[in-house]
Amino acid sequence: MSSSTNEFDVIVIGGGIMGSATAYQTAKRGCRTLLLEQFDLLHHRGSSHGESHTIHATYPEDYYTDMVFESSKLWREAEAEAGYRVYTSTPHLDMGPANGVNLQAFKAICQRNSFPVEALNPSAVAKKFSGRLSIPEDWIAVYTEFGGIIKPTKAVSMFQALALQRGAVLKDNMAVKDIKREEVRGGIVVYTAMGDKFRGRKCVVTAGAWTKKLVHSITGHELPIQPLETAVWHWRIKEGHEEKYAIGGDFPTFASYGQPYIYGTPSLEFPGLIKIAVHCGCLCDPDKRPWLPGRDLDSLKEWIGGRFLGLLDCSTPASTQSCMYSMTPDEDFVLDFLGGEFKEDVVIGGGFSGHGFKMAPVIGRILAELVLTGSADGVELKHFRIGRFDENPKGNVKEFADQVGFIESPN
Ligand SMILES: Cc1cc2nc3c(=O)[nH]c(=O)nc-3n(C[C@H](O)[C@H](O)[C@H](O)COP(=O)(O)OP(=O)(O)OC[C@H]3O[C@@H](n4cnc5c(N)ncnc54)[C@H](O)[C@@H]3O)c2cc1C
Question: Closest ligand 1 atom, CA of 19?
Fold first, then answer.
């Protein structure tokens, strides 16, 4: 490729965590890389902002467990290169009804992968977390030392800084509106809403909740990636008990399987507050969001009251932050070629369904390898192909329940 300022080997569209991790990977492989972001870099209007996303390997699908372990290594390598930390290790605890299929499935998978987990009955939970957490009599919990918290905005910034260091070009306030094939010279041309034009040999689309819209405007094809608006809530720990839930002690990140699915982290970003949220959201247009989905928090408040032994003020959240998921029908990612006239020159990374952040380093590697070589090492991509929705509109067949709940839009 010539050295014109508007010509690149790889153009990555979308500067969230997936696009930033991909740009780092392509730049690291010596490719002249351009990352285009429609808003300001590090904005809060997508999915990759905030202070605490969890990393855990307890998945009922073993392909995710493998990806989490590889990512954990890659997070540490990136941190070493950057010279600062974005990932704090903690233990992790899953809990739910003893007969729940998800808990049983990932317990079996963890044991098969020689990944040490400890099954705890209610009295063992009470003992381990001495007066801080309790589960009902007919529940079990699964405890593992492997878990942690990643700081999202700082992690996006880290991959962008590493990509820059490797020679990538980052441009923000560049909304891509179309991609076309370059018939004569080969490769692709990317057009922005402001009239800019960039040529690339290859392109990766990591547009988060905008993926469906962007792909539709490029190809007319409807990808089943549905934006959902969701929120995270922080709750005040009662005075004198703050240290019991603070990061750096033995309190774990946690997930409670059931209706609804609830998750949380030890107290980290706001001293004296602890994050506890429901894994659900309401359908939205990413360009016309309701901002802060009106949500009935009664079941969450009841859950907090029951699990945290009255040590949290669950009358009202102390803070609320809004964010978007991009959901596929089976909650599996889309990592594939766009195909059609673009063949293998354009790759899509989307549909991360509210659980992709922890795997961003490996997803960046996969997307970079796919676009540069046509295949990705050590990953079975059949779970992530777009074509699975042609065979079955619900995608991959699962033996366990969906994790994310859909709620009515307040609008
Ligand atoms: C509340 C919440 C909690 C979560 N917790 C966890 C967790 O604990 N653990 C975990 O693993 N995952 C978690 N996730 C999921 C994780 O955050 C997402 O999977 C991940 O951030 C998706 O990143 P992305 O890069 O695909 O999307 P985004 O971060 O949205 O990035 C896409 C980017 O593309 C840009 N863009 C879109 N269209 C265009 C265009 N036309 N031109 C240029 N730029 C464009 C957007 O502006 C955006 O910056 C959570 C998500 C939310 C919302």
Answer: 25
